[in-house]
Amino acid sequence: MADNKIESVLKEHRVFEPPRQFVEDAAIKPADVEALYSAAEADHEGFWADQARKHLDWHQDFSTTLDDTNAPFFKWFTDGKINVSYNCLDRHLSAKADKTAIIFEADDGNVEHISYADLHARVCRFANALKAQGLAKGDRAVIYLPNVPEATVAMLACARIGAIHSVVFGGFSAPSLRDRIDDAEAKMLITADGNYRGGKLIPLKEVADKALSEGCESIESVVVLKRSGADVEMRDGRDIWWHDVVDGQPADCEPEWVDAEHPLFILYTSGSTGKPKGIQHASAGYLLGAVTTCRWVFDLGDDDVFWCTADVGWITGHTYITYGPTACGATQVMFEGVPTYPEPDRFWKMVDTHQVTIFYTAPTAIRALMKHGDEYPQRHALDSLRVLGTVGEPINPEAWMWYRQVIGKERCPIVDTWWQTETGAHMITPIASYTPTTPGSVTHALPGIEADILDESGERVTDAGAGGVLVIKKPWPYMLRTIWGDPDRYKETYFGMYDAHTYVAGDSAQRDEKGYFRILGRIDDVVNVSGHRLGTMEVESALVAHEAVAEAAVVSRPHDVKGEAIVAFIILKDGEGDEQLASDLRNWVSEQLGAIAKPEEIRFADGLPKTRSGKIMRRLLRTVARGDEVTQDVSTLENPQILDQLQAKGT
Ligand code: WT7
């Protein structure tokens, strides 16, 4: 995060109470929240056991709440049996069969309403089709689909039969898709011929074919959804159309009752190394977090129209599209397109059309739309809105205030929700009907979540304004269970710094005078571009795989819309870099990893600043990338003359 942003956040003292009318209308009252906090404080495990019995339907009740005998490999609700899709669908059928589960708006504006009965039938048909294709409990299916209802159907169908899904965001490249398929040893790939986003064709099947052209030996079948109508190659004996596999399948499918701990999904995310981590979530605990946070944080109820603008390819889409709103039996909007197409009022127009009451998006979208000017939101009434949420990266107070005033008309509480792929659902966030909010602050931890800030030696950091390592001191039901196929990395990454009960999030944080948390940024080599997490090492590995590149170092610098932007320092094998090569390298990274990883700027140099032991001085590169004055100690620099060159080469 930019130093100037940290400063502006630190100077932020405005406090906004939850509006009185909002609290009066809310399902969850301040007294209820107080009761949750006291219950959680009195008995952490008992509290979660009560919540699990209250919010989930169990096929068989559990007898042990938390098994921590093999910490940090925690187990929750062991010997309980459950099915996640049953909880998201079947249990609503008696009272809400005709209620709209999904209002889907396609890129071209076409709208489709899907009821709970209809969603249930579609999931059952597809689940039967998966079984007919040979997918069984515990098998992995990779889902590479656009943000359309079939993605939700595919995920819930996997859950129904106990297969483990791994959704890969449609913007990822062929090599990234291949790596994930190989790491998960997936038996099936579920994709589409393509789709339109912002009026542009995304050729998913073509990318998938490229991915499958090498490795991917575990793949036995590829199910292809017809979406764009683009001409695609269907390989005999491997590829089969979605509409053909579901044809003739019964609209009923007995759920597979799995253990509470049965893996529900794997979702890959970036870490400090070049290799993405397969974050593995468990069935019951994960779903519990999806439900409780929807209820508490957003006050999600039966009359709401919930809209999370994320893509199902990210954890936000998993928890707040596929699982949370459906498990709550709510109505939600799902959107295939982008906020600025055909015009920058698309979101606001959709809020009015579908009468959205709870709206959840990312700071990068808010900043981008804010730049287009107030006239776009002002074209629309926006009077159905009652809660606004943000997620993915720190939100600057300016964007927060714009969100509050121009979108929420000072009537809607803003919940700035801190969490991660690993945490499964919200962790540190305001509760809409309860928490006084401050721009740029994620406020406090939820009931049952023990967040704290520690210094390097493990002492608590309590002084206002002092920074430290953000940790969670007790296991919680919706935490990740391991890294797929790499338990050592799980232990080392998340529990290596202190002890086997102290989860290290990878962020630094501080408290303000009220004791509220403020997230400062990552403590590892992870950057956050438009709310998407990227490892600098991943981008570096992609760059050095280019034939012209000898060495690369990647850092980020603040960006007023993306939050952070990537700057790559490149040492060529020979010759000088020019505009053309810079553009080639940017495209190369995009092909290797996906468009989100495309560097904002490429700088060529003859060498990188290194210590005498050969370590790249990244902090120094960050300073240079930001165009700031170098005040760091450069006495350990092995090649001090390189500094002048790096600065001079700035464009
Ligand atoms: C990282 C997790 C959580 C779903 C989307 C991102 C940053 C996330 C906030 C927030 C400040 C935030 C953190 C975190 N982050 N939410 N409200 N304020 N920072 O999930 O890709 O796993 O990334 O995003 O740095 O560690 P993710």
TrEMBL record:
<feature type="binding site">
    <location>
        <begin position="416"/>
        <end position="421"/>
    </location>
    <ligand>
        <name>ATP</name>
    </ligand>
</feature>
<feature type="binding site">
    <location>
        <position position="533"/>
    </location>
    <ligand>
        <name>ATP</name>
    </ligand>
</feature>
<feature type="binding site">
    <location>
        <begin position="392"/>
        <end position="394"/>
    </location>
    <ligand>
        <name>ATP</name>
    </ligand>
</feature>
<feature type="binding site">
    <location>
        <begin position="197"/>
        <end position="200"/>
    </location>
    <ligand>
        <name>CoA</name>
    </ligand>
</feature>
<feature type="binding site">
    <location>
        <position position="544"/>
    </location>
    <ligand>
        <name>Mg(2+)</name>
    </ligand>
</feature>
<dbReference type="GO" id="GO:0005829">
    <property type="term" value="C:cytosol"/>
</dbReference>
<keyword id="KW-0479">Metal-binding</keyword>
<feature type="binding site">
    <location>
        <position position="522"/>
    </location>
    <ligand>
        <name>ATP</name>
    </ligand>
</feature>
<protein>
    <recommendedName>
        <fullName>Acetyl-coenzyme A synthetase</fullName>
        <ecNumber>6.2.1.1</ecNumber>
    </recommendedName>
</protein>
<dbReference type="InterPro" id="IPR011904">
    <property type="entry name" value="Ac_CoA_lig"/>
</dbReference>
<feature type="binding site">
    <location>
        <position position="507"/>
    </location>
    <ligand>
        <name>ATP</name>
    </ligand>
</feature>
<feature type="binding site">
    <location>
        <position position="549"/>
    </location>
    <ligand>
        <name>Mg(2+)</name>
    </ligand>
</feature>
<dbReference type="InterPro" id="IPR025110">
    <property type="entry name" value="AMP-bd_C"/>
</dbReference>
<feature type="domain" description="Acetyl-coenzyme A synthetase N-terminal">
    <location>
        <begin position="34"/>
        <end position="88"/>
    </location>
</feature>
<feature type="modified residue" description="N6-acetyllysine">
    <location>
        <position position="615"/>
    </location>
</feature>
<dbReference type="GO" id="GO:0005524">
    <property type="term" value="F:ATP binding"/>
</dbReference>
<dbReference type="Pfam" id="PF16177">
    <property type="entry name" value="ACAS_N"/>
</dbReference>
<dbReference type="GO" id="GO:0016208">
    <property type="term" value="F:AMP binding"/>
</dbReference>
<keyword id="KW-0460">Magnesium</keyword>
<feature type="domain" description="AMP-dependent synthetase/ligase">
    <location>
        <begin position="90"/>
        <end position="476"/>
    </location>
</feature>
<dbReference type="InterPro" id="IPR042099">
    <property type="entry name" value="ANL_N_sf"/>
</dbReference>
<keyword id="KW-0436">Ligase</keyword>
<dbReference type="InterPro" id="IPR045851">
    <property type="entry name" value="AMP-bd_C_sf"/>
</dbReference>
<dbReference type="GO" id="GO:0046872">
    <property type="term" value="F:metal ion binding"/>
</dbReference>
<dbReference type="Pfam" id="PF13193">
    <property type="entry name" value="AMP-binding_C"/>
</dbReference>
<dbReference type="InterPro" id="IPR020845">
    <property type="entry name" value="AMP-binding_CS"/>
</dbReference>
<keyword id="KW-0007">Acetylation</keyword>
<dbReference type="GO" id="GO:0003987">
    <property type="term" value="F:acetate-CoA ligase activity"/>
</dbReference>
<dbReference type="GO" id="GO:0019427">
    <property type="term" value="P:acetyl-CoA biosynthetic process from acetate"/>
</dbReference>
<dbReference type="Pfam" id="PF00501">
    <property type="entry name" value="AMP-binding"/>
</dbReference>
<comment type="function">
    <text>Catalyzes the conversion of acetate into acetyl-CoA (AcCoA), an essential intermediate at the junction of anabolic and catabolic pathways. AcsA undergoes a two-step reaction. In the first half reaction, AcsA combines acetate with ATP to form acetyl-adenylate (AcAMP) intermediate. In the second half reaction, it can then transfer the acetyl group from AcAMP to the sulfhydryl group of CoA, forming the product AcCoA.</text>
</comment>
<dbReference type="InterPro" id="IPR032387">
    <property type="entry name" value="ACAS_N"/>
</dbReference>
<feature type="binding site">
    <location>
        <position position="530"/>
    </location>
    <ligand>
        <name>CoA</name>
    </ligand>
</feature>
<keyword id="KW-0547">Nucleotide-binding</keyword>
<keyword id="KW-0067">ATP-binding</keyword>
<dbReference type="InterPro" id="IPR000873">
    <property type="entry name" value="AMP-dep_synth/lig_dom"/>
</dbReference>
<feature type="binding site">
    <location>
        <position position="546"/>
    </location>
    <ligand>
        <name>Mg(2+)</name>
    </ligand>
</feature>
<feature type="binding site">
    <location>
        <position position="316"/>
    </location>
    <ligand>
        <name>CoA</name>
    </ligand>
</feature>
<comment type="similarity">
    <text>Belongs to the ATP-dependent AMP-binding enzyme family.</text>
</comment>
<feature type="domain" description="AMP-binding enzyme C-terminal">
    <location>
        <begin position="538"/>
        <end position="615"/>
    </location>
</feature>
